[in-house]
Write a structure and sequence with these properties.
With 402 residues, this protein is an alpha/beta fold. Helices cover 31% and strands 23% of the residues. Strand 10 (269-280) and strand 11 form a beta hairpin. It is globular, with a radius of gyration of 23 Å. The structure holds ligand LLP. Ligand LLP is lined by residues 44, 47, 65, 88, 148, 185, 188-189, 223-226, 259-263, 298, 357-358.
């Protein structure tokens, strides 16, 4: 058991703690599943973009999947190899495209025909040829929360197969575009193997057609989306997952790219928060803590469940129904809803689990709350990897013109 009590005293709360040894384990287990073929794991930076997390993963050999030029630069700052960086996203701005081309990353992942012409135009201005991939939307239901489903026609991501073919033919004849990759990403927190398998088959089939048309695709990018256990979800077998991709590819010679985010960091992270007060009315019991939806948005935004532990709780003490809520002025500000928990008192520590992915990265300063501290645990030693923000940090960009 990690010494959460000591950490909370040393760094105060709200506090994010990431166990880097677990990140290592997860990275290697996925890499191992792909060992039969050439593969690159490109960690999805958006899941947890702390520089130390990126640096640690870069040292393990990871590449990076980025969705803004900011993330590309973060990855480079962390020591990423430029040929292991992918830049995706439905709405890249001109300056982002320009910088990505100049930085000579592995590929820009295009999400529309119009974007392709824009990238071509910018590459032409720069007198450079740029490597691209195209995000294909296979119209497959990932059977996950609608907000994190991305591979259906009703979602804004990628292009359909027909448009993709047209785009590849165009790009292949362009002096400034070099189509080297094919990409899909059907959603996040997927706990079934079948949607991945179906999508791989559809896209591998398209790849075959492209190869037959002499378009030399080298990277088969299967996106991210591998689900983790938050409560009692049964997760997929990594071996089966990789095997299905290999089977779909048959003997086509490509490097498989996988973009895991949550899988690598989700279960390695904990949000530590202290109890401030308890209150009850005739209907409900509330445990009010010092972390809030600005620190961890997932419960409010998706109704997501995060397991928790009341540290040092007397296991035999009676539990009763309550919500764990934060100090923010919104009824939607809760970290857990309708859960059973023992009576708490001021300063009791609650550990919110599986908070390593889309936790800190989705946090905000709503209600002028400074964002939490981040701490890494490596070989059981704690290292501060992001200081707590101060009010001065928050006000620094504001201009007093009155
Ligand atoms: N690749 C692409 C193109 C993506 O859009 C994403 C995530 C990933 C990879 C990584 O997916 P993962 O392996 O982490 O499932 N905020 C939401 C999740 C949004 C995911 C967005 N895209 C949440 O808290 O559940």
């Amino acid at each position: 058991m990690l010494n959460f009590q000591e950490l909370s005293q040393k760094y105060d709360t709200p506090l994010y703690v990431y166990n880097f040894d677990e990140i290592d384990k997860n990275y290697n287990s996925l890499k191992q599943a792909f060992r039969a073929r050439k593969s690159i794991l490109c960690y999805a930076v958006k899941a947890n973009s702390n520089l130390s997390v990126l640096k640690y993963l870069a040292k393990l050999g990871s590449g990076f999947d980025c969705v803004s030029i900011g993330e590309v630069k973060r990855a480079l700052t962390a020591g990423a190899q430029k040929y292991k960086i992918i830049f995706s996203g439905v709405g890249k701005k001109d300056n982002e495209i320009k910088e990505a081309i100049e930085k000579d990353i592995l590929m820009l992942n295009l999400e529309s025909e119009e974007e392709m012409y824009r990238v071509e135009m910018i590459a032409k201005e720069l007198k450079l040829q740029t490597r691209i991939s195209i995000r294909v939307n296979p119209n497959i239901d990932p059977k996950t929360h609608p907000y994190i489903s991305t591979g259906l026609s009703e979602n804004k991501f990628g292009v359909d197969i027909k448009s993709a073919k047209k785009m590849y033919l165009y790009a292949n004849n362009s002096k400034y575009l070099n189509p080297v990759g094919i990409h899909f990403h059907i959603g996040s927190q997927i706990t079934q193997t079948l949607p991945f398998k179906e999508a791989s088959i559809v896209i591998a089939d398209l790849l075959k057609g492209l190869k037959a048309a002499n378009i030399d695709i080298k990277f088969f990018d299967v996106g991210g989306g591998i689900g983790i256990t938050y409560k009692d979800e049964k997760t997929i077998s990594l071996y089966e997952y990789a095997q299905n991709i290999f089977e779909a590819l048959g003997n086509q010679d490509v490097t498989v790219v996988c973009e895991p985010g949550r899988f690598l960091v989700g279960n390695c992270g904990y949000l530590l928060t202290k109890v401030l007060y308890e209150k009850k009315n005739e209907k409900k019991r509330f445990v009010i803590v010092d972390a809030a939806m600005n620190d961890l948005l997932r419960p409010s935004l998706y109704g997501a469940y995060h397991d928790f532990e009341l540290l040092g709780a007397n296991e035999s003490a009676e539990k009763s129904l309550a919500d764990i809520v934060g100090p923010i002025c919104e009824s939607g500000d809760f970290l857990a809803k309708d859960i059973y928990i023992q009576e708490t008192k001021h300063d009791d520590l609650i550990i919110i689990k599986s908070a390593g992915a889309y936790g800190f990265t989705m946090s905000s300063n709503y209600n002028t709350r400074t964002r939490a501290v981040e701490v890494a645990l490596i070989n059981k030693e704690d290292r501060l990897i992001r200081k707590r923000e101060t009010l001065e940090d928050l006000l620094a960009l504001e201009i007093d013109f009155i």
